[in-house]
Batch of 2 targets.
Target 1
Amino acid sequence: MRRVLVTGGAGFIGSHFIKHALRVHPDWYIVNLDKLSYAGNPDNLTGLPDPNRHKFVRGDITDHKLVEKLWRDCPAGSGAGFDAVVNFAAETHVDRSILWADDFIKTDVLGAFTLLEAARQFGVNKFVQISTDEVYGSIERGSFSEDSPLNPRNPYSASKAGADRLAYAYFATHNVPVIITRCSNNFGPNQHPEKFMPLFITNAMDDKPLPLYGDGRYVRDWIHVEDHCTAIDFLIARGQLGETYNIAGGNEVENVAIARRICQRLGKPESLIQSVKDRPGHDRRYSLNAGKLAALGWKPQRDFNQSLDATIDWYAANKSWWRKIKGGKFKRYYAQQYGQRL
Ligand code: NAD
Ligand code: DAU
């Protein structure tokens, strides 16, 4: 058995990655370390393909004693340590990082450090640091390649940039076998309704306003979460140690166009779309050149419009999944963020 540590595996992308990995790798045993923050959701882990090869550990990636214990308890086939570590665990929502950045610095930077330090001391065959395209900052024209300078512009992306370069430093200084991925905006089932697409889809279903920041002409490059997961899996097998890889969907769309499509698909009036106060420091456009990954032989498979429709349909068919979240503490965050009741 190959022993793989996945952190943040009860979140959106981490849970999809675990399902994907259990499906395609019958020889993987996955330890899933997740502290179940407001974003971690055990419901995301129902229906795992082979639950006997998945062990859930509730805990914090900044807890070095717990992290060391996970390593010590892990008799990997080839000596001590995990065969692979994939670090998804993070505070991930830009708007929350603007309200209060403390947890971002702790989890995203100190947490990555804690895992890298354990990997250095106790061994790992591959350490994948899940970074983000946001570390490059905004670009009006053209696209960022892996060599572009980093210019994070909000506390979330700055904390992710810290972890990204710390991971590289552990490769350069200590020979920890690190690979860094920088992916564009993910969408799909099980994404927390604080994020743009699920917020707009679920608000529209309830005939609530869709709070579009500023002029709505901000551009994100969207990738279906399952494409992101196959790219990570591909890089675990084929990525070069010490290298950074952009992962992009190649679907650059203005927010307002997505908001309109959501209304159309759900048969709701576009008058639900309401312009609200802009996000401070809002990055205008993200765009990646993903040629380095393409040259290795990986490309996304999913059609954007079909996947968006399927995603809208998933939230329509899984109302209990998101009602549980939106009916809880989320209401308080929503009131603070939008000055409106949900
Ligand atoms: P998410 O917010 O849905 O999930 C994060 C998970 O991490 C949750 O399960 C949470 O409980 C867990 N977590 C938080 N703090 C922790 C801690 N201290 N210890 C252990 N677990 C902790 O996030 P997501 O959207 O699935 O993103 C996953 C990763 O991918 C993040 O590193 C993010 O920066 C990166 N990323 C996300 C996107 C995107 O569009 N969502 C794009 C590129 C990169
Ligand atoms: O680019 C990758 C990043 O994508 C990830 O690293 C982050 O973890 C993830 O949260 C995401 O960040 P964004 O800020 O791009 O995503 P968000 O869903 O918050 O917003 C997408 C766009 O929609 C952005 O231009 C802001 C806008 N928006 C968002 C919300 C929540 C609105 O107009 N209204 C809203 O209510």
Target 2
Amino acid sequence: MQDFLDQDIKFLPGVGPKRAELLNRELNIYTFRDLLYYFPYKYVDRTRFYTIREISPDFPMVQIRGTFVNFSMAGKGNSRRLIGLFSDGTGVLEVVWFRGLKWITQSIKPGKEYVLFGKPTLFAGKLNLVHPEIEDSAVRENQVNTALQAFYSTTEKLKENFLSSRAILKLLNSLIRLASGKITETLPLWLVEKYRLMPLYDALVQIHFPENADQLARARYRLKFEELFYIQLNILLQKNLRSKRKNGFVFSSVGEFFNTFYHRHLPFELTGAQKRVLKEIRKDLGSGFQMNRLLQGDVGSGKTLVALMSMLLAIDNGYQACLMAPTEILANQHYKTLCRFLGDMPVNIELLTGSTKPAVRKRIHQNLRNGTLHILVGTHALIEESVQFSNLGLVIIDEQHRFGVAQRARLWEKNIQPPHVLVMTATPIPRTLAMTLYGDLDISVIDEFPPGRLPVKTIHLRDSARLRLFGFLKKEIEKGRQVFVVYPLISESEKMDYKDLEDGYESFVRAFPPPRYSVACIHGRMKSEEKEETMQYFARGQIHILIATTVIEVGMDVPNASVMVIESAERFGLSQLHQLRGRVGRGSEQSYCILVTRDDLAEDALKRIEIMTRTSNGFEIAEEDLRLRGPGDLEGTRQSGIPFELKIADLAQDGKLLQYVRDIALEILKEDPLLDQPRHQLLKAGIRAQNKNRAYWGGIS
Ligand code: ADP
Ligand code: MG
């Protein structure tokens, strides 16, 4: 009877076409199911009744039972109001309405018993309830029994159209009643029993109308369990399906290119972590299965080199490879780095970005198709329709969290036989998020830095101590070092932010005047040639201080820059601070990251700064970030988009449960890898239902 829940929301009594349209637009609620799975954001205890005598204005929400003694109008114009005297036998209070007066006078009857719920206030020395919720005592008896009243997020638009939290609760009240007996369990009975879960219908009732806190907790557990379980089962099933296909290109040999590079061009010894990761990758490439691997490694840990050597393996086996970066600057940088590493090796490598000239573009397209081009580096331009490879064998995505799952999927479609895929990310991802975002990928970690690196010293400096900063920078510049100064930029269009940047630039020029010092500015509004030129000057050491927006977050590799000053550091998120800090500490000198903040910091900002000064471990920072801000806000997940929306589970809080259900999913799949057994058919249906809303999920694997 699943079609019951699929019914259009406009058919629910009390909704109708107009409200349905609002629910569609404002809350994405289209069907009965959508409403049923629109969960409350908080609950308020409605078991307790207060007497008017005991109430004082400092109480939060109170609930009282009594009758209206009389009504009167007061005030004029804007302060015109209706006042009802409400008595419960222990005292009297005033109930005040400024709006909807007509409706109140017509429908509220003096002498009849009502339950009021609202926040007491004091006005002209008298206790007031302004616009409380009002319920007919008798009607209340008739409702789904609840001790905790649910509250739902709504919007101004909805409230204007009488769709308050309270109204949504009413709709749910009728929906729950209608749904009785019509909701089928979405988890197999054996699973529900084995893990002592609350049955689905009960859980849905309790989540909206909890009988008590305990039942609510059980309902939440059941719904979170199911949500996370299906995500994990889905991911892991996809992985199984993929490995069953055994249709990966086989890179069986380590050949000329790889060996020549390794023995003759590699300017240093690989770190142990790089060796280990390369071994993992080689094993995948030779296995006959398509590789889907996530390579995590902090900024500066040497991922680019691993990428290059993997691509050489592809070329050795007669395949093309591409490396895709999130920004043009980064693509450029990768291209140059790779060219430098390759030196005079006969590898054909090209760069393709949005600003590639048509003639060059044409040549690239040609050489891609005729197979003479070995490596293509670029931005999103690589996934354009017109870009056709002759035999793409390996795709490397330097994701830095900015590359969407959907975009990744498009690369898969470039070949009938899917290329091997390596996703590199510099922002370490908390484990829970990795399991969810990349749960179908195998994971490699570079957890070691190239030798000779001194950890960056991180210092917190308040605005009032700014003079000390200038003194310190002068000393560093005397030593021949260079400095980054970064200003926050919330969005490219925000004038305010540019003003900060410009003012900052001017004050630095005043403190560091030419000709002795050279200060330059770089930001996203500049033409890319201008940006490029400025970067070049800086890279050649002709600029002492580079004032920038976060455009330098990725892609700048200037080992001689030893100081990163972050202005208004309180406005940055943790992982962004970490990324920025990664721009220094690339040389052999001691480097510094100076976090300049306003003098008075809010608690959470102070916490972030403290974490930054305490640790430089990217994983630890990522975990803290998740804990402080929740996954919805986690940098990058917003841009790259979690491929699904979590309705109830919370990756920051439910890490244990996530691991638990992943293990359960693994256990089921171990016994029945493709869920073919009859007792697993419901699970398969559950996954299908989940995938219906995520068209591109299948493409990922
Ligand atoms: P990531 O891409 O992980 O941020 P990079 O690949 O840019 O790191 O490497 C950072 C720097 O370290 C580069 O200048 C690179 O040439 C250098 N590097 C990489 N691997 C090693 C190594 N094994 N020994 C010494 N230096 C290395
Ligand atoms: Mg890099």
